Amino acid sequence: MAKLKGELQADNGDVLHPHTSADVVFMDNGTSAEEKIKSIDQKITGIDVSSDVRRVINERVNADTSKPLSALINEWITSAKTAILETISTLATHVTNQHTATKNHITSKVDAARDDIKSHMANSMANLKIIKSIQRGVFAPTSREKTVTISPVNMSKSFVISETAMHGTSSNYTNTCVLTNSTTLTFAGGTDYQVAWQVIEFY
Questions:
Q1: Does residue 137 surpass a pLDDT of 90?
Q2: At CB < 8 A and 24+ separation, what contacts does 163-170 make?
Q3: Do residues 50 and 70 make contact, with C-beta atoms less than 8 angstroms apart?
Q4: I need a labelling partner for 56 at 20 to 30 A (CA). Which of 40, 95, 148, 160 fits?
Q5: Per-residue pLDDT tens over the stretch 20-57
Q6: How far is the CA of 64 from the CAs of 72, 76, 77, in angstroms?
Q7: 3-state SS assignment for residue 180
């Protein structure tokens, strides 16, 4: 096909080439429109979107740019999943450690309290005092009432024991023995027998 080259001048100064085939349409620099279109097409085709996205991901997750984009995304998801699972898996350990620490703290406090009680009890038992005094005596009543003077005692912490006997053997004779005040015992009963008495005072 013959390439005819004609020119038209537009009002704005543009040079127009009135041809209907791209291969015979020329630009100002002499390049055909067909060649220009091919050049633009090659530039568009050369744009690597996945490479650009992969480069950004590489900057974010330090991945290998030689791997496919899908592989990088999968690795990132797997890494995030692993990190989450590891965190969850350590929860039981953290709970156990806290439980152990709490148990040890309580045990320590209980043991300390127990030792304090044991020490206090040991000191108290070592110096344990129960009976403060014992006073006792024997007499043969000559009347149905008799009083005996004793050393002062705390009446609220003392009690009296008395027993009667006739000719060295126990008898059914009865008598009353009362601590009438802190220094006096009063007996009431019969005669012709002996009375043994004790006043025991406690701390």
A1: yes
A2: 163/195, 163/196, 163/197, 164/189, 164/193, 164/194, 164/195, 164/196, 165/193, 165/194, 165/196, 166/192, 166/193, 166/194
A3: no
A4: 40
A5: 555 555 556 666 666 766 676 666 555 555 565 556 55
A6: 8, 11, 15
A7: strand
Position 198 confidence tier, pLDDT thresholds 50, 70, 90: very high
Domain residue spans of the chain: 8-45, 49-89, 131-202
Strands (E), the chain: 8-9, 15-16, 131-139, 145-149, 158-166, 169-170, 175-181, 184-189, 194-202
Buried b (16+ CB within 10 A) or exposed e, 78-88: eeeeeeeeeee
Number of H helices, E strands in the chain: 4, 9
Query: How many C-beta neighbours within 10 Å does residue 197 have?
Result: 20
**43 half-sphere exposure, CB direction, 13 A CA radius:** 6
* Residue-averaged pLDDT of the chain: 76
- Return d(Cα 132, Cα 134) in angstroms, integer: 7
pLDDT grade for 82, boundaries at 50, 70 and 90: confident
Closest alpha carbon to 159 in 140, 141, 139, 133: 133
Q: Which two tokens stand for residue 176?
A: 């009353």
Distance CA 150, CA 76 (A): 101
